[in-house]
Write a structure and sequence with these properties.
Length: 106
């Protein structure tokens, strides 16, 4: 996943980059991921609740990545997200795996 985020005026670019990476990792966590709102709240320390995990075979949609990034406090908007294909199809006995995350904050 590669993303370019536009920060709000008061946000710290370095802290926002680190937070965005943690949120993406939480979202893709096979045991606790799959729920954008819970991933952000958990990383923000606003909730101890984590997601219920990924269902085997559930696809990942580019729109979900935009949603999760735009939920992060300090993000004004998402300029661009790049993934290998637009939507990532997962086999019926597979889970998504996010191995590389590159976040640029402007």
């Amino acid at each position: 996943v590669q993303a370019t985020l536009v920060k709000t005026a008061e946000a710290n670019a370095g802290l926002l980059e680190d937070k965005a990476k943690k949120v993406v990792l939480e979202f893709f966590d096979p045991e606790y991921g799959g729920e954008a709102e819970r991933a952000v709240k958990y990383i923000e320390g606003l909730s101890d609740e984590r997601g219920s995990g990924w269902e085997f075979g559930r696809s990942v949609y580019l729109s979900e990545l935009y949603e999760i990034m735009e939920r992060i406090p300090g993000v004004d908007h998402v300029d661009l997200i790049t993934t290998p294909p637009t939507n990532i199809s997962i086999g019926k006995n597979q889970l998504p795996l996010c191995e590389q995350i590159s976040i640029t904050v402007i």
